[in-house]
Amino acid sequence: MIRKYHAVILLLRNPYGSLAAEYNRKQGGQMFYERWGDDAVEREEFLQAIGAELKCWSNITINALLCEECLLLVVHYEDLVERTNEQLHNILKFLNFSVDEDRFRCVENDKEGQYHRGVPKDERTRQYHMLRTLDTRFDIDGKIKSVSKLLVSRGYLPIRQYVV
Q1: Residue 124 in domain
Q2: Residue 132's pLDDT is what?
Q3: Lower Cβ count inside 10 Å, N or C end of the chain?
């Protein structure tokens, strides 16, 4: 599917963060998150959602990395958050767009924006540990290692460790 595009920007996030964020988005909407119940990892609906999202994350990432006909830019989500302007400059350069420094100042001044679900750190930590218990069922760490190996073979940095 990716082969029909000339260029691809792959915004890549550690799957633990990605799975939690996507589940929170679907359950709580754009502005809120729903606290995961203590039994979440035992509920079939939760397991199906996590399994489907992990498969999607893996397929999209691997397809993008294996597309030899595509110009590819890999942007690690964590780098985009930590060094927003630098990463935006790289993206614009990749797209052959000119840089408007006034817009960059605007981005810098409003980096946090107004649309955050605001999941508290203790809840993010709890969600991460709940997802870690699913590694044996879904082999999340194995998928991270496979994708990281593919990233390195293509000259990119491996997936960053998930930090809660």
Answers
A1: yes
A2: 85
A3: N
**What is the distance of C-alpha 111 from the center of its chain?**
18
- Total residues found in the chain within this entry: 164
Please give the angle made by the CA atoms of 33, 62 and 133, to the nearest 5 degrees.
Answer: 45
Tell me the average pLDDT across 138-145.
89
State how many domains the chain has.
1
β strands within 57-114, DSSP E: 71-76
Please report whether residue 43 resides in a domain. Answer: yes
DSSP state of 70: S
In-domain check, residue 164: no
Residue 1 has pLDDT above 90, yes or no: no
Nearest Cα to 24, choosing from 46, 51, 6? Answer: 46
The boundaries of the domain holding residue 142 are 2-153
Q: Which carries the bigger pLDDT value, residue 5 or residue 92? A: 92
107 assigned to some structural domain:
yes
pTM to 2 decimal places: 0.81
> C-alpha dihedral over 147, 149, 3, 50, to 10 degrees?
-10
C-alpha triplet 24, 143, 22: angle, nearest 5°: 10
